[in-house]
Amino acid sequence: MFVLPRLKPNFITASILGLALCLAWLQVERPLLVRLADKMDATANYCQDSNRMEEAKFLYKGSIFLTRLSPARYQIETAFSLNNLATLERDQENLKEATGYLLEALKIFKSRWGDRHPQTAKVMNNLAEVYLYRGMYEESEKYASSAHRILADKYGMYSIEAAQSLCTVSDLKRAQGKFLEAAFFNEVALHILNANFGEMHPFSLSAMADLTCCYSAMGDHKSAERHSRKALDLSIKLYGKQNPKTAIYLSNLACCLQKKGDLAEAENLLRESVRLLRSNPSAQGICLANKVSPRSNLARLLRELNKKEEAQKLEEEVQTILGAAPQTILPRQ
Fold first, then answer.
1. Alpha carbon separation from 104 to 37, 83, 107, 120 (Å, rounded)
2. Interatomic CA distance for residues 210 and 214, integer angstroms
3. Which pTM does this prediction carry?
4. How many CB atoms lie within 10 A of CB 97?
5. Residue 21 CB burial class (10 angstroms; 0-12, 13-18, ≥19)
6. CA distances from 119 to 7, 13, 59, 65, 167 (A)
7. What is the pLDDT of residues 269-303, one digit of tens each?
8. Could you report the per-residue pLDDT of 180-194, keeping only the tens digit for each?
9. Which of 186, 194, 262, 288 is 20 to 30 A from 96, comparing alpha carbons?
């Protein structure tokens, strides 16, 4: 039979005293953990910008772990890290995980800073986007509307913050098929973004592309083509001809030309769009809808041109991409 050694009272006393000192040190020096968490967050941001997603995810989770060890007054640091991790999961189409992180972050921000704090509103806007991508329009509208009201009250109706929330509202309206409302919100947002950033900025370009889709859906093909050509020219200047982000603007212009009956040029533009996306399949900042739409549009055009075999291969490629992200429901085109 195994017998435990008898511990001397002095050893027990010293162990208890050492443990107490360790706990006291942690309580006093806990901000060191918070500072370490800040460094991890900053490094994670760099990794995310460099498209090193797994490293970024690991660092964000490490930062959350460290801040959760901290006293309650440091919980706000946990919320910031949760929000950052949620945006990464959203970009990777892990929408259920992103929803959970955002709801937890929102709860912390509300408890610490209140329901109408700007950071609370920004998390609401992020949550509205995630619900939109999941096809949960009622939840998305609730958070998007609340976020816009708070940000407009805090920064003004024509602020950058209000414009970003307007873009979310516009995306939601477009997904619901309310194209006239979507176009109105989009035009206001684009005006604000152009005034603050200029036309050659990713936010302005994205809003211009969305407005093109609104005009096209409403049957205003002349306005849609004018905006899509301008957006394509600006995207080439900003990103370059070989950047996969330019594929989005190529596809938008192709759709306008296809509706006008210029099928040959539309086919060429869509082929170039798909080629750019295939050349860099893991490019950051390209959501699932923008990965799928050029392929789907080209497949439909090829069927119209009686190139059925090639169209079928593209349709199978689309299904493979969608199968890798079953949580996502694409916004209505």
1. 18, 9, 5, 11
2. 6
3. 0.84
4. 18
5. exposed
6. 54, 48, 22, 21, 17
7. 999 999 999 998 777 778 888 889 999 999 999 99
8. 999 999 999 999 999
9. 186
